[in-house]
Amino acid sequence: MADVRGIDGVRVRASGKINLALRVGPRRSDGYHPLATVFQSVSVYDDLEVRPAPPGEFPVTVTGAQADLVPTDGRNLVVKAGRLLAEAYGSPDAGAAIAIRKSIPVTGGMAGGSADCAAALVALSVLWDLDVTQSELLDLGKQLGADVPFSLMGQTAYGIGRGDDLVPVLSRGSYHWVLAFADFELSTPAVFARFDELNPDPSPALGVPTGMLETLASGDATALAGVLVNDLQPAALSLRPELSKTMAEGMDAGALASMVSGSGPTIAFLASSEEAAIDLSFRLSAADVCRTVRRVSGPVQGAKLVA
């Protein structure tokens, strides 16, 4: 591997995710909902660079899309990741300056904050030259957020519990997606609260749609379109009905399927091929139903060191 450390810094790239299946059970006494989900990482990225800083200090700077929406104090998961990693494997007095360049939408249902957190765990473990394994990073990730372990792992995976108990899933070929980024945000807790209102007695029996794992192994995009599911979608559309118009425009423009990504408000459209995705992205952009359109593919790696 190329030396990813600059004179005094380490750079890591982290990918966003789409939930190909997201099944949600009844709210537990601890406030969480049991999940059964299939994640796929896609090629929309945040870039993170870490450099040495005075002991115990973790200054954060953020640039790029929606940078003004990202906290730069102790609320940011990258700061929490640094403090947890330093306490567990390094020196409690370790510090780092963290620079984030955003492309993954903020509170967009694509785990952008978790991606940055995963990138921080990887980057700081290298910066501080820690003897920490991938398995140990995954355990730390569970303490920081439900989506952090998958943001470390990437590719395609089946998750249960809070979505952080993961099993890799065989996924052949590459799937082509067009993402419609909204000009507003959706709070994940608000979407789950609306889910509870709409589903006072949800089924406790969770599982991914029949045939989804076999479909991913076959690499058949048309078949995958028929088994995509998101139990949070009705709640997200209830809170922001205008998303239904975005979904309808994409379907009219030739998408195989449309779905809310995670808790939203990003809408993911599955295309039959790269060429179809290019055409769909142009037509969706012209419809003026979202902030911006991004064409991506998946699966891709999770948080990784870059030269």
TrEMBL record:
Originating organism: Propioniciclava tarda
Protein family membership: Belongs to the GHMP kinase family. IspE subfamily.
Q: Where is the active site?
A: 17, 147
* Name by which UniProt lists this protein: 4-diphosphocytidyl-2-C-methyl-D-erythritol kinase
| A single MF term (Gene Ontology) | ATP binding
> For the GHMP kinase C-terminal domain, which residue ranges apply?
213-284
Q: What does this protein do?
A: Catalyzes the phosphorylation of the position 2 hydroxy group of 4-diphosphocytidyl-2C-methyl-D-erythritol.
Q: Kindly list the biological process annotations in GO that this record carries.
A: isopentenyl diphosphate biosynthetic process, methylerythritol 4-phosphate pathway; terpenoid biosynthetic process
Q: Which reaction does it catalyse?
A: 4-CDP-2-C-methyl-D-erythritol + ATP = 4-CDP-2-C-methyl-D-erythritol 2-phosphate + ADP + H(+)
Residues that coordinate or bind ATP: 105-115
- List the keywords (alphabetical): ATP-binding, Isoprene biosynthesis, Kinase, Nucleotide-binding, Transferase
The GHMP kinase N-terminal domain extends over 76-155
Q: Which NCBIfam families match?
A: ispE, PRK03188.1
Known Pfam families for this protein? GHMP_kinases_C, GHMP_kinases_N
Task: State the gene name recorded for this protein.
Answer: ispE
Its pathway is: Isoprenoid biosynthesis; isopentenyl diphosphate biosynthesis via DXP pathway; isopentenyl diphosphate from 1-deoxy-D-xylulose 5-phosphate: step 3/6
InterPro entries, sorted = GHMP_kinase_C_dom, GHMP_kinase_C_sf, GHMP_kinase_N_dom, IspE, Ribosomal_Su5_D2-typ_SF, Ribsml_uS5_D2-typ_fold_subgr
